[in-house]
Design a protein that fits this description.
single chain; 436 residues; alpha/beta; Rossmann fold; 2 domains; six-stranded parallel β-sheet; 16 helices
């Protein structure tokens, strides 16, 4: 190996969920391009989901260093009377009722634990990271967020050792989808903004997942250097899901969502379209399958639109099982919440959907990067949040084709080959070579 990189990531197996995949796949494929990663992560983090099977992707030669951490979630669980697992909140809480204790705890999180509730890992990560950098010949540091507090450890390590540093933004910081829900005081918001600006300016290079978010972060960085923020998109791993068009289940026509369906991602426009189709008796074999956690307001909406009798919910499953559900779907549901930076939202899930070969029904910003990706790959369509007529026509078209025994396909293997995780890792190594 010619190069070594120290990777700081809070989410790493046995953690599950979408926050793990991006950095896990980079770690898996970096050795193929002459970069040996060492991973610095938390010993037993506050994870919203767990999937130990993901650990099989970590190459045996990659050292994984784990440190202690202080997370406030145990205190939060005792204070609110919840279990430790239920106390770990990720994503939007929009539309969900909360007790006065939960509201108070959210205020403390927004104004005391800045930039996020995992900031208690920063001193442990910094201490251990400095020892690793002193003992080994590392060429670069790579941090990923959320949690964006991880970038604070990266900034400290870069300052203390002078090692070149790349900060990877899977999501924006003060423009993340649920930021407006946090009850920040003015001083807290100013401090959070200052921390964000410091990270963006101190990192030699910033990477993010979409062109729109690159432009957003470049503007926030405030320096006239167009190469200082680069796009390294998410992707799919061919060893997890081989790309190519597949056939859906034949007994029922399933609209399937895989992943957490947060409160803010509740696609009311689609539910309204499905209700109208059922009233017209146009989709007699339609079923909904929701794989992963489902927010209470989504469940309430399904009840309000009379869809509970055709809905099956499946709790969190291992990644391989989730892929099986994708391949069986008549349509794969992609839901992107409405927030100021929604145009740049390109989730990791969309790439696995594309690789599954089934058509995608998206609900979100019709002018955003996700809509453009679906057009480019011919993998599906993305409709506006309240485009009931568009969703209705799309579902009807696909259901009728499926009924006739001629189910429509999604993206082909050729159309998605650029979005393999291995290819995205090669793009990352080019950036690492530049900073060193």
């Amino acid at each position: 190996m010619d190069r070594r990189v120290l990777v700081l990531t809070y989410y790493f197996p046995p953690s599950g969920g979408p926050g793990v995949q991006r950095m896990l796949k980079f770690v898996k494929y970096l050795p193929d391009f002459g970069w040996m990663p060492s991973v610095l992560t938390v010993q037993d983090g506050a994870y919203p989901e767990r999937d130990p099977s993901l650990g099989d992707d970590v190459p045996s030669e990659v050292p994984v260093h784990r440190t202690a951490s202080w997370d406030p979630y145990q205190l939060y669980a005792r204070f609110t009377g919840q279990s430790d697992d239920d106390a770990v909140v990720q994503g939007s809480m929009e539309g969900q009722e909360s007790t006065w204790k939960e509201s108070l705890a959210r205020w403390v999180r927004a104004n005391v634990f800045l930039p996020d509730a995992r900031v208690g890992w920063v001193p442990f990560a910094t201490w251990s990271g400095r020892q690793l950098l002193a003992d080994g010949d590392y060429d670069a540091i790579l941090t990923t967020g959320p949690p964006h507090s991880t970038h604070l450890a990266g900034a400290l390590l870069q300052y203390l050792t002078g090692t070149p540093w790349v900060a990877d933004f899977r999501d924006p910081w003060t423009d993340i989808n649920y930021y407006h829900e946090l009850p920040h005081t003015r001083p807290a918001r100013c401090l959070d903004t200052a921390l964000e600006r410091m990270v963006l300016r101190r990192a030699q290079t910033v990477t993010t997942v979409s062109p729109t978010w690159r432009d957003l972060l470049l503007e926030k960085r405030g320096q006239n250097d167009g190469e200082a923020v680069a796009v390294v998109q998410n992707g799919f791993d061919e060893e997890d899901i081989s790309p190519g068009q597949t056939e859906p289940a034949t007994d029922t026509f399933e609209v399937t969502h895989v992943g957490s369906l947060y409160a803010s991602r509740n696609p009311d426009g689609l539910w309204a379209a499905l209700r109208r189709l059922r009233e017209q008796n146009a989709v007699p074999k339609l079923r909904l399958r929701l794989v992963g956690s489902v927010a209470p307001n989504v469940t309430a909406s399904l009840r309000r639109f009379g869809l509970t009798d055709i809905t099956t919910t499946v709790s969190y499953v291992p990644h391989a099982t989730a892929v099986d559900y994708m391949r069986q779907a008549g349509l794969l549901l992609l839901s992107i919440e409405e927030f100021p930076a929604s145009e740049g939202m390109l989730t990791g899930k969309i790439y696995e959907y594309l690789a599954a070969g089934r058509p995608i029904l998206g609900v979100g910003n019709p002018d955003g990067d996700a809509a453009e990706l679906l057009r480019e790959t011919e993998g599906g369509r993305l409709f506006g949040w309240q485009d009931v007529d568009g969703c209705l026509a799309f579902v009807r078209q696909h259901h009728e084709s499926w009924t006739d025994g001629e189910a429509l396909s999604g993206a082909s293997a050729k159309q998605v080959r650029l979005y393999r995780r291995r290819s995205q890792t090669e793009d990352l190594t080019s950036i690492l070579e530049t900073v060193v």
